[in-house]
Automatic annotation (TrEMBL):
Transmembrane spans: none
MF GO annotations: DNA binding
Domain of life (superkingdom): Bacteria
HTH hxlR-type domain sequence ranges: 10-108
DNA-binding listed as a keyword: yes
Keywords tagged on the record: DNA-binding, Transcription, Transcription regulation
Taxonomic lineage from the root: Bacteria, Bacillati, Actinomycetota, Actinomycetes, Streptosporangiales
Protein name (database record): HxlR family transcriptional regulator
Keyword Transcription regulation among record annotations: yes
InterPro entries in the cross-refs: HTH_HxlR, SCP2_sterol-bd_dom_sf, WH-like_DNA-bd_sf, WH_DNA-bd_sf
Length: 222
């Protein structure tokens, strides 16, 4: 990494030197959810070549952003996790994710959704001020991806897997983005079949209020 510099005495330039390489911030995104084995990271980023993943992890280790840890026996597996310095990227990744979500169009035919990407998407779009008085457990199913979100007022807990007794189960595909961006109402996405729910319909309206993608940027006149 030492050879890839911008030659500027600037914090932003240094940040880009550390995490600006292709795939680096997506590795950080997944590690913000929790420690991961190499195979876990590879599964969550299926298009990254193995040699590139190895190189990025080595670079992030050398920069003090990521470290390796050996789990206790009998597993003795090696996991990668963020250092305290690396964990400081949490707010950066969340803000950048929200900023990018404003320009998301329709997903391409080969675009994938992972549990880690959706976990960070819910964290990024959560609006504590809109969750006042809400206490609910949501289960979100998107194909093979299943995760849950517990909302308790301004507090949010998100994780992979189902809930024992969710207040609302949401089964959705690309329509979840339209709902979260305010491009379609809860009634519209349900009526179209893009979202299916099990539970109290009012909780879908609250979901759309609490997890909100900001409005898309205005088009620039030609």
């Amino acid at each position: 990494m030492a050879g890839r510099t911008y030659g500027q005495f600037c914090g932003l330039a240094r940040a880009l030197e550390l995490v600006g390489e292709r795939w680096a911030l997506l590795i950080v995104r997944d590690l913000l959810v929790g420690p991961r084995r190499f195979t876990d990271l590879r599964r969550g980023l299926p298009r990254i070549p193995t040699n590139i993943l190895s190189a990025r992890l080595k670079e992030l280790e050398q920069a003090g952003i990521v470290r390796r840890r050996v789990l206790p026996r009998p597993s003795s597996s090696v996991v990668y996790e963020l250092t305290e310095y690396g964990a400081d990227l949490d707010d950066v990744v969340i803000r950048l994710g929200v900023w990018g979500a404003r320009s998301l169009g329709e997903p391409g035919p080969d675009d994938i959704v992972t549990a880690d990407s959706m976990t960070m998407a819910l964290r990024s779009t959560f609006r504590p001020e809109a969750a006042e008085g809400l206490r609910a457990g949501y289960e979100l199913r998107m194909g093979e991806v299943v995760l849950h979100a517990r909302v308790d007022g301004g507090e949010l807990e998100v994780g992979a897997g189902a809930l024992d007794e969710p207040d609302l189960v949401i089964e959705a595909g690309p329509a979840i983005k339209a709902l979260m961006a305010g491009e379609a109402t809860p009634d519209e996405v349900v009526a179209s079949g893009g979202v299916r729910i099990t539970g109290e319909a009012e909780l879908l309206r609250r979901f759309a209020e609490v997890f909100r993608i900001p409005a898309a940027p205005a088009a620039v006149p030609a």
